[in-house]
Design goal:
Blueprint: E1 16-19, E2 28-33, H1 40-43, E3 55-60, E4 64-67, E5 75-78, H2 85-102, E6 110-116, H3 118-130, E7 136-140, E8 162-167, H4 175-188, E9 193-198, H5 206-212
Parallel strand pairs: 2-3, 2-6, 6-7, 7-8, 8-9
Antiparallel strand pairs: 1-3, 4-5
Helix pairs in contact: 2-3
Length: about 210
């Protein structure tokens, strides 16, 4: 028996979630990428403490949804797996292109890119792909893609604040893994990224984001 895997191209739909209203009083626009196991609308609950008039949040939705446990009640999602990764990356970037086109970002607003956990890999890939120039970049408790190179980020202003946040007891960032990620961080951003360790594990702390906002 000979198994042959083939590919097709088709049109697909996906959702994304927003928090607050984009208006004349909006000062900050956030593009936030959730981690594995999240849905975008639930991830936005971490940002409800920000001023509703000044902050507008856009949360893209990872496409691959699944049940989180054997009770088949709660649903999460994943951005990518090791299966057919190159094609899936293209699909994700095409989806993010559509989200970006759907949301008209006023030039007067300060754009913040944030990735959490698996969302770090998507946030950095999108930056490298789209070459957008954000006001601030926050990379929280996630890994940097192996295929990205320093030249992918040369377009960024040297004044762009880049933060790398992680918990000292994060089980996914053991000392060896953390050292590798720190080396990649140094190489990709030419030493301009600032590290912000905190006393905790693999968890999203809203108060840390408030402190990092410039």
């Amino acid at each position: 028996m000979k198994v042959q895997e083939k590919g097709v191209t088709y049109q697909s739909q996906n959702s994304y979630a927003t928090l607050n209203t984009l208006s004349e009083s909006t000062e900050y626009i956030w593009l936030v990428f959730h981690g594995i196991g999240f849905l975008s609308r639930y991830f936005l609950k971490y940002f409800t403490g920000f001023s509703k008039s000044k902050h507008y949040f856009i949360a893209p939705q990872a496409p691959s949804k699944y049940y989180l446990n054997s009770e088949y009640k709660h649903v999460g999602a994943s951005w990518l797996t090791r299966e057919n990764t190159d094609v899936e990356k293209e699909n994700v970037m095409a989806y993010l292109d559509a989200v970006w086109a759907s949301e008209v970002i006023p030039k007067r607003c300060k754009l913040i890119i944030l990735g959490y956990s698996q969302g770090v890999s998507i946030a950095t890939r999108f930056l490298a792909y789209k070459k957008i120039s954000p006001y601030q970049i926050m990379l929280y408790a996630g890994g940097l893609p192996e295929e990205l190179q320093e030249e992918d980020f040369r377009y960024l202003s040297k004044d762009t604040p880049i933060s790398f946040v992680y918990g000292r007891r994060d089980p996914y960032l053991n000392p060896d893994r953390l050292m590798r990620e720190q080396d990649k961080l140094e190489g990709l951003f030419a030493g301009s990224a600032i590290q912000h360790p905190f006393d905790g594990g693999h968890e999203f702390k809203e108060e840390l984001i408030h402190k990092l906002l410039l």
